[in-house]
Amino acid sequence: MRDFIKEKAGNKRIVILGFGMEGQSSLQYLQEINLGNSIIIADGNQKIIESPIIKKAQIPVISGDDYLEKITKEDFIIKSPGVPLKKHRPDLKSFSQTSLFLEYYQEQIIGITGTKGKSTSSTMMHRILKDQNQKSFLVGNIGQPAFDLIPKICDQTWIVYELSAHQLQCVRQGPEMSIILNLMPEHLDYFGNLEAYYNAKLNIFKNQKEHSYSFILTKTQKKVEKEYPTKLRTALKDSALFLDKDVLLHQKDLKYLLGYHHLENIQALVELVLFKKLDLIKAIESIKNFRPLPHRQELIGDKKGLRFINDSISTIPQSAIQAIKAIKNVDYLILGGLDRGVDYSELVDYLLDKSFEKIFFLGKAGQRVLKELKESQNKLNFEFSWHPKLQDIRNELLQIPQGNVLLSPAAASYDAFTNFEARGDYFRDIFLEICENI
């Protein structure tokens, strides 16, 4: 990898653009391999100058509102995900940990993306491999930065790479094994339009070789113009996954995963298991016993008929609809948060046909959904109330005697929490307090 990066960078100044977790990882790796190039850090946050890592390394820093203007076309740029370089400096060519890593380790990587479900599916694929005594690492959007793993990788290592649209935006090479689960409107505040967001996701198939594995759900394929043919050996029918005429897996066989959408994502993994000739029987057992990740339709607990389900990862209307369908009998729904201008019409139409004890609408997003529901002039089959944030309904949630309480906000969390994990943890704390008092 060292010689590969040196060939790419030549004798150029290396700019680490963005100094979050991935930027720090890039700096550490570049220091270890000692290319001999000069290195600088570029980040809009001026406070990074006080970073102990930067002080210890004595690395020059450019920051402030005009920091991007101080980067030149002659620089070799390693960009962190989420830095909007194309928007503000479209003239600059950049690389990233993801693009360099995919190009170098292409044949060992299972790349998984999708608007929703990629974290669960990536972790499940990693579990399938580990259960078959395969050497596997989980990296990317859910795991640790890719460069951290380079010293541990050998020719027999599998690398399961969970890839976000931000990571895929500037890749030049897709992995040998690439999966797109689904595409739904998301991150439009960053990408500007749906086409740009979808195109970033589709980069996972970029420059694949003829023998490569690619999977895209049929309903996802219909959303994009270019055809990505997927040869399937399995089929989904009647809430079951079939191989030829034999049932491999019923939806009801999934002990901890709720909802048909999981079966759709599992099909992609099973197809990959068949493609790589792994042990299918062991893989199915791994899938059946797989537990969901925190904040993803996670049953926090069941106490005397009171169940709290934490789906804080839900930041778009489609994911909230999936969660309601999966839980089936939702009594209390918590919906809303930061309004990023997402189209809520599909969710509004869905809620009009549903019955709940009550819906708690939160934040600007919840306010807009409630407004659209009222404007429909249909009778609402539930009580409702609006509150600025989740913290405002804590006392009311503490008084719920029984029923299914679902947090599936269909909105971002940043109006009240640092991230969706903090929102889910707060929701969990409420249930734990209830348990202490029962």
Tally of DSSP helical segments: 17
How helix-rich are the residues, as a percent range?
25-40%
Outline the low-pLDDT stretches: none
Which CATH architecture of the largest domain is right? 3-Layer(aba) Sandwich
Tell the overall outline.
globular
Main beta-sheet strand count, sense and barrel state: 6 strands, mixed
Beta-strand fraction estimate: 15-25%
- Count all strands and give the number: 19
Tell me the count of domains.
3
Report on the architecture of this protein.
The chain has 438 residues and is of the alpha/beta class. The chain folds into three domains: 2-95, Rossmann fold; 99-288, UDP-N-acetylmuramoyl-L-alanine:D-glutamate ligase; 298-437, Mur ligase, C-terminal domain (Protein-Tyrosine Phosphatase, Chain A), CATH 3.90.190.20. The chain has 17 helices and 19 strands. It has helices at 2-9, 21-33, 52-57, 85-88, 97-104, 118-131, 165-168, 188-191, 194-202, 218-221, 260-275, 280-288, 317-327, 345-352, 363-375, 394-398, 420-437; strands at 14-17, 39-42, 61-62, 76-79, 94-95, 109-113, 136-140, 158-162, 177-180, 213-216, 234-237, 240-243, 246-250, 298-303, 306-310, 332-336, 358-362, 383-387, 403-407. The strands form four sheets. Strands 14-15-19-16-17-18 form a six-stranded mixed β-sheet, with helices on both faces. It has a five-stranded parallel β-sheet with strand order 3-2-1-4-5. Strands 7-8-6-9-10 form a five-stranded parallel β-sheet. Strand 12 (240-243) and strand 13 form a beta hairpin. Helix 6 crosses helix 12 (280-288). The longest helix has 18 residues, at 420-437. The protein is globular, with a radius of gyration of 23 Å. It starts with a helix and ends with a helix. 42% of the residues are buried. The mean pLDDT is 95.
